[in-house]
Amino acid sequence: LFFLQMAFILAACRATAWLFMKIGQSRVVSEMIAGVLIGPSLMGWLFPGFFAYLFPAESKPILFSVAQLGLVLYMFLIGVEFDVEIIRKRLRSAASISAAGIIAPFLLGGVLAYFIADDPQLFAEKTSSLEAILFMGAAMSITAFPMLARIIFEQGLSKTSIGTLALAAGSMDDVAAWCVLAVVLASFQSDWSIALIAIGGGVLFALVTLTLVKKFLQPLGDKVQVAGVMNPDILVFTLMLVMLGAWFTDFIQIYAVFGAFIMGIAMPRGKFAAELHRMMYPLTVALLLPVFFVYSGLNTKIGLVNTPYLWGLAAVVLFVAIAGKGVACYLAARWHGESHKESMAIGTLMNARGL
């Protein structure tokens, strides 16, 4: 059944991508739409028997694992491509854009949550107003880093100044928002060690990986540079480090993607990075990664938004999310001397959304 699911997912993604690319949309957008189309929102509604056979509940954990593997490998490769030298020159800009993209939507989301926190359709009874505000603020302020990275890479912006700036700001944004979610989780469980471990562990992981691990890997980079190719032993060792990084950041309740991305930044550049891309990129993007974006749609039931009130609220949430992050990031970019066009691009990219 898993193999049949994979064939069906790949076919749906390819068909949807063919249509969406004709109207200028990125492939990642088409993959998310494909997930909605073959999920309970459409296929499950039109053909419930076939949907129940093809995607039974007990198969979801397997697809989830494959989706996470594809995402981790892809974000590792994005980290490998990340141009650290560009961002060193523009660190203040990235930090300002990230801060603006968190604070403005967080405040707007918090204000919105204040008025709807008592609605039992939206929040459980045990949820306090403060917890609802923190949750909605965090949800509004998160930039979907994998979505952002995929769009930048597909549009050929990964090695440009604007692409690197957006990636840096997006990574800071994402980590900060996940830390806020750790605080929310700690509040729900009345255990503040959850937040301490997440935030402290994330900082420690980044410092150790970008100093000690990076220095340790340099001889391997030199070896590949001389040989001109990467042997299987070095590839396996590298993959082991990626898996450990993803496990650790997931274990401390930040996000597996963060560990993979930071590990990618620590990799040697030159031939080492080129070989990783040559050996890993095609299969990761063609086979594994689509499962991640489709999986979102498989778990989305648009039919649950079934009243004029909920549709109206959805429209308000959408407007607040886009306006808060887009306008704030645009203004921050302009403040640091970016042109109107580049600032608009950054505001748009930072508005990349997932779940």
Description:
- There is one protein chain.
- The chain has 16 helices and no strands.
- The chain is mainly α and 355 residues long.
- Helix 7 (91-116) packs across helix 10 (161-189) and helix 11 (193-227) packs parallel to helix 13.
- The mean pLDDT is 88.
Total DSSP helices: 16
Determine the fraction of residues in helical runs and give it as a percent range: over 70%
The multimeric state of the shown protein is single chain
Q: How many strands, which pairing sense, and closed or not: the largest β-sheet?
A: none
SS class: mainly alpha
Please provide the ordered H/E string of secondary-structure elements: HHHHHHHHHHHHHHHH
Counted beta strands: 0
Describe what is shown at a glance.
By secondary structure, this protein is an all-alpha fold. The chain has helices spanning 2-21, 27-37, 43-46, 48-54, 60-81, 84-89, 91-116, 129-141, 145-154, 161-189, 193-227, 232-251, 256-266, 271-298, 308-335, 340-349.
